[in-house]
Design goal:
five-stranded mixed sheet; alpha/beta; 39% helix
């Protein structure tokens, strides 16, 4: 599991690699929380390297999504979502409410 955060002019780009389950979701929450604590509420999750995204990671994502969108502060957008993770997010009912992009450049440019 690897999480790399890059501060850009418009937003924070967080690249995810590996498995995100109950044991690694706290690290994902810490990365998202760090951005929000620094006043950045526009976040792009680049999921190109993610192999697994379990229920704990989904819960962490929803928490960040709600906090970023509160009072129209920002948004969390997804990029490079692998097909099997896209399917899980769709089954969880998350995919229709979240903006997804084919690559991180398009996602960052959408802000």
């Amino acid at each position: 599991m690897k999480i790399e955060t890059t501060r850009l002019k418009r937003c924070d780009l967080i690249k995810l690699e590996g498995r995100f389950d109950s044991s690694t979701a706290p690290a994902l929450e810490e990365a998202l929380r760090r951005s929000m604590d620094e006043g950045v509420y526009r976040i792009v999750l680049d999921m190109g390297g993610a192999e697994f995204f379990g229920s704990a990671a989904i819960r962490t994502f929803i928490m960040a999504y709600k906090e970023c969108r509160r009072w129209n502060r920002g948004d969390v957008r997804l990029a490079n979502v692998p097909e099997r993770i896209r399917h899980v997010l769709d089954l969880a009912g998350i995919l229709p409410m979240v903006q997804t992009y084919e690559d991180a450049v398009l996602a960052v440019g959408s802000f």
